[in-house]
Amino acid sequence: MVIMVVEDDGDIREMVCQSLAQNSFRPVACRDLHEARRLLAKISPDCFIIDWMLPDGSGIDLVRWIRRQDALQQIPVLMLTARSAESDLVTGLDSGADDYLTKPMSLRELNARVRALVRRPPRYEETRDLLSAGRLSINTLTHEAFVDDALIEASRTEFKLLRLLIDNPNRVLSREQILDAVWGLDSVLGDRTVDVHILRLRKLLKPYGAADMITTVRGSGYRLSVKTSQQR
Is the pTM above the cut of 0.90? Predict the structure, then answer.
């Protein structure tokens, strides 16, 4: 089984990988978020071991990103970190990690926890065919999008973007978050890609008087504005 180890400390990374290999796992080592995402374009591990503090960001952000990827979201995650406060543990688990182990750790315990994680059945996810926020709704099975009861001709990308917004009503989404969720690992794309597709989605919604629902938050990103009474 392939275990991806995302750890910036070279000594700890080597120690963990050697221990995993001695326990019949096949470790794949990464030093930071960028390297992890690059490798995930090529492989799909059976389990993640992710450090909290990384040179180019937070391991928590990587866990949240993993949980948004259809191909990765069922893969178990073990957080490995020096942060031992109860609030940190809660944050890690609430972000999507399946287990949490603090440094310094026992390598024997680490391997036992990895074995337990890979034996777990896939996490249960309630199937939701119809999603809605305010006047907007989508059918995830038929890939149809609606304003009120009117069917709109959304492209695949516009549909994915609309789904992201509907899943996060009244929440500001940064351009990076939108890129990760809609385009995944395609690192050649930039912020301008998000701006262009938001513009296209607004044009699509304009004939139905719904373009203004997508608001620009200067310096932060975009938000789908929905009245509280309309959220379902």
Answer: no
